[in-house]
Design brief:
With 82 residues, the protein is an all-alpha fold. It is built from six helices and no strands.
């Protein structure tokens, strides 16, 4: 997660941490730990934040998700069954 970009987006929209925490239904301390990258935001929280901060899909991807591709192992039998 890119914590500084999230903070910049929050500040740009004029939000303080306590207000975003209130909107997310979490404590300010919990929000602070999440904004610092010590805990992860849930998908529901990311959706709410993206609406509140008016984030584009690119911004959401950049702030909350790693840009690296992950390789998934697929059971060959499952693929053959499709």
């Amino acid at each position: 997660m890119k914590t500084l970009k999230l903070k910049a987006a929050r500040v740009e929209k004029g939000f303080i941490q306590s207000k975003l925490a209130e909107h997310l239904g979490i404590t300010e301390a919990t929000y602070n730990r999440k904004e610092l990258g010590l805990k992860n935001f849930s998908i529901a929280e990311i959706k709410k934040l993206s609406a509140l901060l008016d984030l584009s899909l690119d911004q959401i991807d950049e702030i909350f998700f790693d840009q690296e591709l992950t390789i998934r192992k697929v059971d060959v039998k499952q693929v053959a069954a499709i």
